[in-house]
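question for whoever is on the cluster today: can someone run the full assembly for these? two chains, 714 residues total. i dont have access anymore since they changed the login thing
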Amino acid sequence: MLELKQIGYWYDREENSLFKNVDLTFETGHSYAIVGQSGSGKTTLLSLIAGLEKPKAGEIILNGQLLSQIGLTKYRQKKVSIVFQSYNLLTYMSPLNNLLTAMAVTKSTHEGDKTYAREMLRKLGLTDEQMTKNVQRLSGGQQQRVAIARTMCCDAKLVVADEPTGNLDEENTQEVIQLFQTIAHEQDRCVIIVTHEPDVAAACDYSYRLAHHEFALEK
Amino acid sequence: MNFFKRAWLNLIAKKGRTLLLILVTSAILLFVLAGLLIRNAADAATSNAKKSVGATLTLSANREAAFKKMRASASGDSTSKPEKPSLSLTPVKLADVKQIANLDNVKNYNLLSSTSVNASSFDAISTTTSSAVSANTEDGRGGSKTFADQGDIAISGVSATALTTNFASNGYKIIKGRGILASDANTTNIIVKSELAKQNDLSVGDTIKVKSTSGSQTYSMKIVGIYKAPSTSDTAQMGPGATDPSNTIYSSYTLANTIKGSKYKNTADSVTFNVSDPVKVEAVKKAGTKLISTSKYSLSANDVSYQSVKSSMTNIKSFADKIVWLVAIAGTIILALIIILMIRERRYEIGVLLSLGESRAKIVTQFFVEMFLVLIVAVGIAGAGGQFVGNKLGEQLVAQQTASTASSVQTGGMTRPNAGGQAPGNGNAQAPSGSVGRGGASFMDSSADKTALDVQVTPTNLAELGGFGLAIVFISIVLASGGILRLSPRKVLID
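^ ran it for u. tokens below:
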């Protein structure tokens, strides 16, 4: 589904690349973990995969089409869904409106379908009352569940998550890991999670380690 | 959910910020509106002044040319016995008047012919001041003995009193009967001043008798009206050697000509032409000058009232323009700073929307919609308060302008050669000893009335204000969001 060919990224000089000549392939129906030490470039790679930034070298290919051809805005809108450590919800809205906004912006097949959005939130454990409260009044775990529900409401086959359990307790972490597995296996999507938590990496189908500017398949 | 709904949700969720934006925007728009209203009112007042104040041209004998002629004849006749030189002024012929009256933009004209007589069947009013003592004449009739040979009654012959500046704008009023009309030509109808009528128990319908200054002829005159003049104008008309202003009688110019003698038939001392559009006064003067003999006559323009009003209104308009621009510039800066801060605060939200794949244009449009909604409320508030602020500011400006113009006109009036006596162009008759002149004070009374601003908020004003507000908001948002939106989403979101 997604191919990274000879990808390289650096800030100022090529000699100081975070990584170089990276070749990775990701498929739908599977979950992938990218692990590594802090500052190794995991989040940067995720940004490139999420279309938040362009690689300095190499090409990203989605279903045989170059990402540069698709266009970053359209790619983010239609092809990829992102979950962040800090949830990145629209703070002036309720969980329900966050989902409806995402569905509208991404032009999801369920655009404007409140019942579907409610169903998703209910599936993820939010009560009807919580759905219409301001998101800031929910706990961290609940907010992360809303972010995941937002992903599930959109049609993107590629789901990327940056330290999605970073702010969660153990119980919530397990629940979130389970949700990502559901997304990958039941919804037949490709889930790529950047994490430094061994439990999360272990729960994924595949795990890549970034060390010394190179990726190695661990699992 | 589209950006309209997002904008609405944002405004509702952040009530405090929305209220602050509404207040700041209202304050800015309030002053912009006040400026716009004053500017429009000044425009309207200038336009009205054109219609109401008007301008005049005065055709009269060319005193300068006559004076030169007198000097030349005096020096050329050096062998003969030296004689007291006399100034020979040529009265204006009605034939010349009609030619000028036919020019474009000449609305109407007033023939002015003045003379003086002595009261015969009544007493003229005498005035005693600390500097000049008047006494009764030998026959017991009133008047100044010193100036008895000049006559104690001033006859101001006019085409119609309504056409004179005194009656049109200096506050002279007919209190009984009627004024002199064009139809009074070749009659002995007159109007007298209320003080003179009261002193002699005269009323409309009475007949009075006057004697020519030589005493050879007596004339009967029929009172058809009694007029009253503002007391300030009486004081202003008093001067050294002047008969009391109450002794001024208005008649048809034909009666004044008859008293002056047969050679004055079909003539006038001067003629005042009212020009319909004050802007055209110079063009009419130029055309009129071609029709007359400039060695005998002079045609002078008097648009001082219009120029004064125009000058006041131009100053007010210029001040209002400055208010509009200053407030607009300051408002744009203030609003832009607030919006910049607001948008910087919303960097995270922009990042989220960008990560979802929302276009930059739609994000900017969302901000614009938010500010547009704020603007609608602010325009409403400014519209409600703008008239009050505009009125207060306008009154203050007009008061200042009127005071400064009055001061300059009064100062100018002191040096004007005709300020006390014959006042070409001001529509007053030539009167003995300057009895019918006028000062700056009475002039400014009418001018001040005409410079009053009528500040009204109209839908057009509000639309204009809305347009102004939209421009300010647009510039502010473009300035504010440009910095953030040119960054990559990762920088906005993760960094």
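summary bc i know u wont read the tokens: Residues 31-41+71-217 of chain A form a domain with the Rossmann fold fold (CATH 3.40.50.300). Chain A is about 35% helix and 25% strand.
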